[in-house]
Amino acid sequence: MTDIVTKPRGIARGLTQYGDSGFSLYLRRSFASSMGYSRDILDRPIIGICHSASGFNNCHRGVPELVEAVKRGVLSAGALPIEFPTISLGEVFLAPTSLKFRNLMSLDVEEMIKAQPMDAVVLVGGCDKTVPAQLMGAASADLPAIQLVTGPMLTGRYHGERLGACTDCRRFWARYRAGEISDDGIDEVERRLASTAGTCAVMGTASTMAAIAETLGMMPGGSAAVPAVDADRLRIAEQTGRVAVAMIGSERRPNQILTRQALENAARVLLAIGGSTNAVIHLAAIAGRVGLSFDLKRFDELSETTPVIVDLKPTGQHYMEDLAAAGGIPAVMRELRELLHLDCLTVTGETIGERLTRWSPWVDRTVIRSVDDPILPHGGLAVLFGNLAPGGAIIKRSAADPRLFEREGRCIVFSSLDDLASRIDDPHLEVAPHDFLVLKNAGPRSAAAMPEAGYLPIPKKLARAGVKDMVRISDARMSGTAFGTVILHVTPDAASGGPLALVRTGDRLRLSVRDRNLDLLVEDDELGRRRAGMPKDAHPEPSSFRGYDWLYSNFVTQANEGCDFAFLRRDGTPKNP
Ligand code: FES
Description:
Bound molecules: FE2/S2 (inorganic) cluster
Radius of gyration: 24 Å
Structural class: alpha/beta
Largest sheet: 8 strands, mixed
Strand content: 5-15%
Oligomer: single chain
Number of strands: 14
Shape: globular
């Protein structure tokens, strides 16, 4: 068993305060004994297994089996595994949006790691916001920690066609809205889209965050893409348990692993896989937890020198199970080798460079291309600035129509999600295919709490006329599984009085992805008059909230700071609101 260099360890860590530590330990052992533990096993170091299984989280259906496999690994390495639950964030089961609760989950993870007696922790998560929440919480707790993801779903079939949640969800729904699929047809697709345990089967946010966790060095090599139902997933869980034991007392803590160089590696991989725009927010939040900033200008520079080399939906053709079979994230990183910081530390103690050296050289070129023969010569995401987005806005150019990148257009503005829902399909809506659809008040400070609503539907009358894509602009987010010419995370958001709040239907906007510009073509004088006429605080009065709504409303930061709570960043200064 690994030498224990920290004392006290295991059950004796962080004793409950009664003013008599001997009594505290005696009492704790006594109560632990009621769970049937022997004294011998209670004297071992403890690996906490922090998991988020929930009946409201289909993506975590396989967690109980994974936890059992982790326990096998921990026991075989000589420590005592103890699982504990935290809240769970099932993407489609939460209102108004899972992002609102990511920080709550991170608080839960951090505080339970710190408050309970454990020497290292395994984090078991998968669905979109759970992995960032676990990484954020673990970074703040800074105990040796290792991530285990649930793994992606396998694809289903519909009339001979492969189906993967959730790019195909959107594709078929768009066809249904356009009248190309019947009610019976869409019902059958609904049943077949998510047919196994695991996370969405494409390069959505969950898969992107799994790839990022591996790239950051927080997971064993090759563990991001293996499907949830594959036996290898259980072997990875067992390995994770063993590695966790080896980490006890080591310097392999999140603050040693999550360095600026590791974050740059993660940004490179995010760009090369055509990953989710949500990951930009999560990386900024993780960076903040270790006292670093995630500079969007630097991210955009990296994008110019990082090719897209993975052919996966929503950017390409394949699914996560294909990526796993093609060589997984280590094969992607090996292709990017010249662009990566190879001396970054990982949870296993090896560096990223050492990990890549021992990985099998085989690669399936139909899924993972070489940097000399990329799918796109530059990264999947770009950052726009301009008078509409002084703090930046994101476009997933790898999933957009380049014919729409350099243009000027008339704005059709929706003031809120309710306004959007009530008017988008109105046959009298005055809208043309070359207009820009603009949605306000869907950012982090809005009551909607930044939902994945930036993928505005094409107005039904245009969809039925064959229009497949339009420029869409908002302060909202977009699911990593979505596609289209969609500009997101406009910062500052409208609810905090950003320039987006001033846009009106009929205004003209200029978009240039080439020049990274997003400019509202309205005179400054006119914008000043509009601002003077705005209510002083478009944001709802914080005093009208209580509980978590109050906390969220008062402390959430903008997208470029990761939408974390200001006081949870490492440099965060607690202030009275
Ligand atoms: Fe959980 Fe997509 S809904 S990963």
